Amino acid sequence: MNKQNRRNALKKMAGSAAMMPLAAFNFKTTEKTYAPLKGNIKHSVCKWCYRDIALDEFCAEVKKMGIQSVELLGPDDWPTLKKHGLDCAMASVLTDGFGIGKCFNRTENHAQLYDIYAKHIPLAAQAGLKQIITFSGNREGMDDETGMKNCAVGLKKIMPIAEKHNITIVMELLNSKVNHPDYMCDHTEWGVELCKMVGSENFKLLYDIYHMQIMEGDVIATIQKYHPYISHYHTGGVPGRAEIDETQELYYPAIVKAIVDTGFKGYIAQEFIPEQDPLASLQEGVQICDV
């Protein structure tokens, strides 16, 4: 039985529309209702996984699900979120070619990165946001110790601005095995040591469960050990980054319960790429994580 048929058999989703590929859906057709949430989790979702749905429509729909944030969006999109009463739990402000592969681990980038964050941190604060994402950059032959020191030097320069405006700068942990070859911040311990080196409560980690399962495994024990350094979580099915259901190797109710048990009060964001009806899959993911 191939992956698609196995998924269909497990989910037993009713109706042929649910089996159609993502691009074939008309997202403006039905008025849906959703089961209420327990209220123990602040739910967010990464918009890039739902590119075929207009932001305004997406916001209206996810709010019905009980999702409180749509994230990884820049300043141009923040007013749309505000219109729908939604947060942007993780803002994205990097410009000028900076991002996952090119960021703080090279000192020659620091001046431009400082300008970008110095401009956008006050804007995020004015919009009522609390967190902005950042990255290490790729190794490109650089050893991890040098990269960590370089990141710390650059990040320390923007920490006074972040602290002044009560904004947390958050570096994402990503896998370098499958999705982001050569990325430097690819292990939790490296990120934690960087947090210690920066020495500010306004610098934390984004623990992406999908990425760290690929790189490290031992997800729950890692979260329990390092949770003081983590301010945000992303989901995703392993393998393949699809739905977080019975077809993948992680059991998200136990993971999310472990997160809650640490006293975490931030957001947990769905960041899987749906292979089924995207809104139905998103709603199912939220319910799975709603412990």
What is the general shape?
globular
- Secondary structure class reads alpha/beta
Strand order of the largest sheet: 2-1-7-6-5-4-3
CATH superfamily (homologous) name: Divalent-metal-dependent TIM barrel enzymes
CATH fold-level topology: TIM Barrel
Order of helices and strands: HEHEHHEHEHEHHEHEH
- Low-confidence residue ranges: 1-29
Radius of gyration: 19 Å
The DSSP helix count reads 10
Number of strands: 7
Please summarize the sheet with the most strands. 7 strands, parallel
Number of domains: 1
Counting copies of identical and different chains, the oligomeric state is: single chain
The portion of residues assigned to helices is 25-40%
Estimate the strand proportion. 5-15%
CATH class category label: Alpha Beta
Kindly, what is the distance between the CA atoms of the first and last residues, rounded to a whole number of angstroms? 32 Å
CATH architecture title: Alpha-Beta Barrel
